[in-house]
Amino acid sequence: MTNKDKQYALDLRYLRMARIWAENSYCKRRQVGALVVKGNTIISDGYNGTPSGFKNICEDDNNITHPYVLHAEANAITKLARSSNNSDGATLYVTDSPCIECAKLIIQAGIKRVVYSRNYRLEDGLNLLRKAEIEVIYLNPDDNESE
Ligand SMILES: [Zn+2]
After folding, report:
1. Alpha-carbon span 147 to 143, nearest angstrom
2. Which family would the database say this protein is a member of (predicted)?
3. How many whole angstroms separate alpha carbon 73 and alpha carbon 69?
């Protein structure tokens, strides 16, 4: 196995873990999971949901997501702000492509690679990441069941 193959296999594995992590989300419309990995160690994790101390309900009566719901990436990055670790040079694994608000956080957090598995309707987040010279990789674990 070349280093490239090894990285690919690891990327798929972490992405599958992010997908499993998304199952923690109590949001009904969409469940998103994120992992921050540095030096082959998971240093943070997140899923979309309300801030600490808020009721675990993401949607209002009309099935519209509350504006105070945090995205998985934002939860993973802000969790690091309360830890002794940091995301400088890390890789973010996320089930869905980041939105523009999360893309800004990813850039400022010093994350260097983003691996995701599902495209969001808007591409502006991905474009911003690319502009910041962050490596953006799309992988679909379902295409690689034998891996
Ligand atoms: Zn977002």
Report:
1. 9
2. Belongs to the cytidine and deoxycytidylate deaminase family.
3. 12
What is the value of pTM for the model shown? Answer: 0.94
90 pLDDT more than 60: yes
| Residue in 59, 58, 48, 42 with CA at minimum distance from that of residue 23 | 48
In the 8-state DSSP scheme, what is residue 141? G
For residue 49, what is the DSSP state?
Answer: B
Give 36's strand partners: 44, 92
Backbone φ and ψ of 127, nearest 5°: -65, -40
Cα of 4 from ligand 1 centre, angstroms: 29
> Chain-wide mean pLDDT for the chain?
94
| Residue 88 pLDDT exceeds 80 | yes
pLDDT at 145: 55
